[in-house]
Design brief:
alpha+beta; Alpha-Beta Plaits
């Protein structure tokens, strides 16, 4: 059994996730590979004190990163969760400098 702090690994901050957080109330997190949607929901609600409406998860496949002197390096696969919050709620991690 994983703890709340092991379920969420890190927030994913990209241009697309910034747009989603500002306009669509959706936040992206890298999560543990064996985490379920219920565990992700409980972790987000407990750590950030928000109400989660919907969760979408996907596993991003491993990719060949580059080839350097006949050595192929791979980017590891990871599990990503897109979390939709209730109307009027935000997570301060994604808001930036105030």
């Amino acid at each position: 059994m994983t703890t709340l702090y092991e379920v969420l690994r890190r927030p994913l901050i990209t241009e697309k996730s910034s747009f989603q957080s500002s306009k669509l109330r959706q936040y992206a997190f890298e999560v543990s590979r064996d985490a379920t949607k219920r565990q992700i929901k409980e972790a987000v609600e407990a750590l950030f004190d928000v109400d989660v409406v919907k969760i979408n998860t996907l596993v991003s496949p491993a990719k060949r990163a580059r080839r350097l002197r006949r050595v192929s390096m791979r980017a590891a696969e990871y599990k990503k969760a897109l979390i939709t919050l209730a109307e009027g709620q935000t997570i301060d991690v994604f808001e930036g400098v105030k």
